[in-house]
Write a structure and sequence with these properties.
CATH class of the largest domain: Mainly Alpha
Number of helices: 5
Strand content: 5-15%
CATH superfamily of the largest domain: Integrase, N-terminal zinc-binding domain
CATH architecture of the largest domain: Orthogonal Bundle
Number of domains: 3
Shape: extended
Structural class: mainly alpha
Largest sheet: 3 strands, antiparallel
Radius of gyration: 21 Å
Length: 170
């Protein structure tokens, strides 16, 4: 009676969810390591680290895991060196593409990116070939409770904001 074991079904579902969670934990761990190296281990002074910690908590990463990753990244004996690399190129139909990566092996990542560009009908370009077409922008979400929309619009435009959108309570 293969396939009728309740324990086997539970085991397979648990394996699947555990691998998905592990993938997310690893990704967040790498982001924390880079943030600590760029701005230090104190979330009060390092806004990028604070944002990554919030992202980790939103994805149910345990606090002891977050603390252990921060300690490991700020310690002297850390042998993992993660680099942020931006690859540029053209996708199908000549669409400009910029891909931000986080890697410990530049050569492997470059080969993988070249493979993906070729596989999906694009061309990987040199640094700067499409960067001039993009501008880095941020998004701020502010709760509407107790905020005057007209005053907020004036302040945002004075600070150089491109647009102000209002939705439900944000």
């Amino acid at each position: 009676m293969a396939g009728h074991s309740k324990w086997s079904n539970i085991k397979h579902k648990k394996e699947k969810t555990d691998t998905q969670r592990a993938k997310i934990f690893t990704k967040i761990g790498r982001e924390i390591a880079v943030a600590v190296k760029e701005g230090g281990p104190d979330p009060a002074l390092n806004t990028k680290l604070r944002d990554v910690i919030a992202k980790g908590k939103a994805n149910n990463v345990p606090n002891d895991n977050l603390e252990r990753i921060i300690k490991k990244a700020s310690g002297e004996g850390n042998e993992d060196q993660y680099d942020e690399i931006v690859y540029e190129g053209y996708g199908p139909s000549g669409i400009a593409v910029m891909v931000e990566t986080l890697t410990e092996n530049r050569n492997r990542t470059a080969a993988d990116m070249r493979h993906y560009f070729d596989k999906y009908g694009g061309n990987m370009g040199q640094n700067g070939c499409v960067a001039f077409m993009f501008t880095r922008q941020g998004v701020l979400a502010i709760e509407q409770e107790g905020v005057e929309e007209d005053k907020l619009m004036e302040d945002a435009l004075d600070a150089g904001a491109a647009d102000l959108l209002t939705e439900e309570d944000v």
